[in-house]
User: Which sequence fits this backbone?
């Protein structure tokens, strides 16, 4: 027992009530999502799942199919990479504009404070709209303009991922040590140079790894857009599934795993190079 | 006039008062030391002069301009003429010393020059010369996270020397250096100010350094100016009052007791040999 003279942790009741709020809020959500783990172990369901998975073996490895697979992989990679590149063009300026750590008018506060806040609010709204609409919806919309094919998918990726990247870039630039950038702004540097000389050295690793992670997500997203006619691995998978060819599906899934592994490797290498 | 504060006061956002009715002015080329216990408002005073914070009361005029009445472009222009050496150098750890020093001129360079310098430093002689003055030329291409605290502080000083500001401010610029290096660095700050007619204001933790080097010493306590005198007129009781210590030692370099000779025997540069800058 503690001696009674010791003060109690004054924050304990607050922590307890937060934990209770979390449980009370989460339970109905699980109910709404029809989450029922017991269904996984039901004998009948297990049999159906076993039957489904067993179709996956052996994976289809004929030269003919592998050639098709290689072509589709390149298409998917091209779509994801082009999408991320375009997204960067959108996200980099908006992220720089949003980051408070690069705000000149906040020092003091100085002149142009009102205009700066309005600009920032507009940029935030734009990013919100871009990432609020799923890439699939953008793709369906853009297919009307560009017709079927990868172009609509690339643009859809650029818009949604531009929104996500811009928001997270701004947040990365605000976390960590922002004093170097502020000190540069205080000696008359512009905000772009304050970024390059004051913030980039300490945030490059994080910016790079988040960008590569988003590239990995873009690979998956471009697969989904393949289902709606954008080509690449998604389209191939769509056909294989319609023909109930489990071997082809499992071969495609293995390519997915390899691509994620590749993204991981790139991320690690970049982080090491920037350390 | 290099700067003028009229009844300047500062209250932080959390309600804590940092400065109260501070009036202080300096002509171009003056060299002033600011001393006082920690929490006296030395850093706040310097940051107001650096136009990095705005006083909540009173007036501030820097290099013949009222900074908080300027537009954005004019304020940037003014800031590029003010250099502040921070106590903890605001330099990203992964940055190389040369890049950190080149950053001192970002306010003066066109953007393309600043960008190109990230690919290949467009000026190597300049940063090298400033580091050489502070006896650190051999670390020019070293990453800053491989430098010691005192070395990093000298890189921070070299950046501001490279900037060549008209108003040279220094916030405890030698707090991480041994006495010999501290003397060398303060000497170089004086040499820089003298050679270009710039004004120098430095806050110092070590009283002996302030009294020995500066023709004008300002004592700051609890946000107010206690005295503003040449060192020969500053007496032991004034210093004890400033640091509120009746018997304890006054803060000096290496904790050596402060020597009090007859009035007039103490003054700028009376006891040190000026170290010439290194040959380039």
Assistant:
């Amino acid at each position: 027992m503690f001696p009674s003279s010791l003060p109690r942790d004054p924050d304990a009741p607050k922590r307890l009530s937060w934990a209770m709020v979390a449980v009370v809020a989460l339970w109905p959500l699980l109910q709404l999502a029809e989450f029922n783990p017991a269904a996984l172990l039901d004998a009948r369901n297990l049999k159906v799942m076993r039957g489904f998975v067993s179709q996956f073996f052996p994976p289809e490895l004929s030269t003919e199919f592998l050639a098709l697979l290689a072509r589709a992989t390149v298409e998917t990679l091209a779509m994801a990479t082009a999408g991320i590149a375009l997204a960067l063009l959108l996200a980099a300026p908006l992220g720089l504009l949003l980051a408070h750590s690069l705000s000149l008018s906040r020092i003091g506060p100085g002149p142009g404070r009102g205009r700066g806040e309005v600009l920032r609010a507009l940029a935030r709204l734009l990013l919100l709209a871009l990432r609020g609409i799923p890439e699939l919806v953008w793709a369906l919309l853009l297919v009307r303009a560009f017709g079927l094919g990868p172009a609509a998918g690339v643009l859809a990726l650029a818009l949604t991922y531009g929104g996500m990247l811009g928001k997270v870039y701004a947040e990365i630039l605000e976390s960590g040590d922002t004093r170097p950038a502020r000190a540069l702004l205080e000696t008359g540097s512009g905000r772009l140079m304050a970024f390059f000389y004051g913030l980039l050295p300490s945030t490059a690793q994080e910016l790079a790894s988040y960008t590569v992670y988003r590239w990995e997500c873009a690979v998956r997203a471009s697969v989904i857009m393949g289902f709606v006619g954008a080509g690449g691995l998604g389209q191939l998978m769509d056909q294989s599934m319609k023909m109930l060819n489990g071997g082809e599906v499992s071969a495609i899934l293995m390519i997915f795993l390899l691509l994620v592994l590749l993204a991981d490797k790139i991320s690690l290498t970049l982080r090491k190079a920037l350390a | 006039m290099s700067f003028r504060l009229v009844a300047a006061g500062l209250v932080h956002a959390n309600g804590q008062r940092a400065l109260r009715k501070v009036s202080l002015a300096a002509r171009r080329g003056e060299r002033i030391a600011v001393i006082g216990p920690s929490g006296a408002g030395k850093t706040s005073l310097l940051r107001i002069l650096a136009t990095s914070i705005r006083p909540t009361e009173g007036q501030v005029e820097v290099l013949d301009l009222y900074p908080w009445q300027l537009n954005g472009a004019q304020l940037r222009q003014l800031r590029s003429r003010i250099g502040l050496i921070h106590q903890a150098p605001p330099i990203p750890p992964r940055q190389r010393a040369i890049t950190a020093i080149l950053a001192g001129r970002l306010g003066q360079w066109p953007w393309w020059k600043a960008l190109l310098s990230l690919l290949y430093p467009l000026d190597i002689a300049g940063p090298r010369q400033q580091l050489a003055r502070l006896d650190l030329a051999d670390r020019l291409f070293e990453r800053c996270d491989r430098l010691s605290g005192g070395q990093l502080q000298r890189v921070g000083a070299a950046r501001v020397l490279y900037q060549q500001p008209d108003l040279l401010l220094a916030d405890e610029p030698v707090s991480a250096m041994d006495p010999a290096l501290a003397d060398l660095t303060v000497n170089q700050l004086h040499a820089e100010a003298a050679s270009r007619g710039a004004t120098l204001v430095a806050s110092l933790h070590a009283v002996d350094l302030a009294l020995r080097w500066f023709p004008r010493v300002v004592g700051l306590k609890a946000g107010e100016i206690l005295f503003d005198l040449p060192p020969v007129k500053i007496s032991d009781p004034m210093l004890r009052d400033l640091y509120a210590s009746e018997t304890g030692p006054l803060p000096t370099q290496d904790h050596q007791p402060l020597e009090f000779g007859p009035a007039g025997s103490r003054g700028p540069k009376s006891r040190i040999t000026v170290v010439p800058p290194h040959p380039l």
Remarks:
- Residues 261-265, 267-280 of chain B have pLDDT under 50 and may be disordered.
